[in-house]
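S., here's the first fold you wanted:
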Amino acid sequence: MAKEEVERFLIAGGENYDFRLKYDTLEPKTAFVAEANKEGYDFTEAEFDAVLKESGDDFASYGNPRKRGIWWF
């Protein structure tokens, strides 16, 4: 179930620019996951990391304005 929640979260970010914008600047990862949980997504930092690792994505942000390459389009 948690894997599906992370995937739902990553897809939501891929579909919504404002959603991505909010999360692209959140640091550290604990705050990022905590905010996602406040918005109704149910996963832990370890579960989030597992899905990123499986998909080959990296949590690091880059550019100006800050962006993350984790979102699923």
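And the second, which I think is the more interesting of the pair:
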Amino acid sequence: MIRSSLLITSVLLFSSLILTTAVQGKQTASSLYIAAHNAMKPNIYTNIDSMLVYQKGQLISGKYYGKYTDKTSHRTHSTFKSINALITLIAMDQELLLADETVMSLLSRFGNQTDPDVRKKRIKVKHLLNMTSGISCDEAPGSDGPNHEWGVDEGPQPLQYSMDIKMVSEPGAEWHYCSANSFMLAATVSAALERANRENIFDFADKYLMKPLDINSYRFTKSPNGRFLNGQGNSHFLPEDLAKFGLLLLNKGQWGNNRIISEQAISQIYDSNQIINWSFTDLIESQSNIKTSYSNQWYQTTFEVRESKVSVVHSWGNGGQFIFVVPELDAVVIFTGSNQGNFHKQKQPFDIMHKYVLPELMKAHNN
């Protein structure tokens, strides 16, 4: 665990300054960060609750809007899917389960598969991680469905509901965004922990991810019976704590002197080669043809900025919750927002990244 007394002396720069917001004085009048913040005040951009920019481990620019402050815990929605993947990767690092392990046999300790389709027995951990399970479900914005969010988020038996979803393709063949994949992924980790006579998933996540990152002000959401972690989303975190997950990725699983996730596991997130059928930059004229790729519950979008291509690994949560990781610029950017249900407005941070944040990060990186 990182102790406050070690922050200055023994922890890498990226973690030593993460909790301070006292760097605003370092901004100059010409800073594009200030321009971005000012663009939010007159409602050029709407319902953005916070924007935090870190570079070389320092909080370079941090602002909260409306009723939100640095003490306000924010609902993450599906950005938690990406955090849930980190919990899974830790379990895999500890050899509690394998990427090629089939999940239905593990989940049988919690419920019975009622669907006779033999393809379901071939769903593996890696298929849940990559949204390629083959179940008949598509909850991407603008898709025709089927949509199973209610049954997973609000239903009385979300695991059985998820296990009962019909198959539509062979596991691994197609990418379709579906919250049931993420819920079953967390339940699979729970089953693997139970099989090994280990702690429950809540204690596991706290011990091996939250506490090492010094994250204490968070709240998990659980299934109605309290047994399962809602791996699909909705847990609450402070924006500055969301930045710690981004910094963990940026530093390839290392936090100070502590190895939290193996570099090999983190590389799976960066090695994104599954092109998905939607874009986060289609509303930006010069970026409209850019596609997004996906790996291990994280997205990757490549921006074109000032004749350069900048790859960004990121999460996405309904309303506009984003963790952006920009390896080549040594940066992490956090957005939280309240644009639930409006996917166009949720994409505002991508315009802000393209117009303001990335150019400023590039200028600082090149100086």
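Why I say that: The chain has two domains: 4-72+239-366, 79-210. The CA atoms of residues 49 and 66 lie 7 Å apart.

Talk tomorrow,
H.
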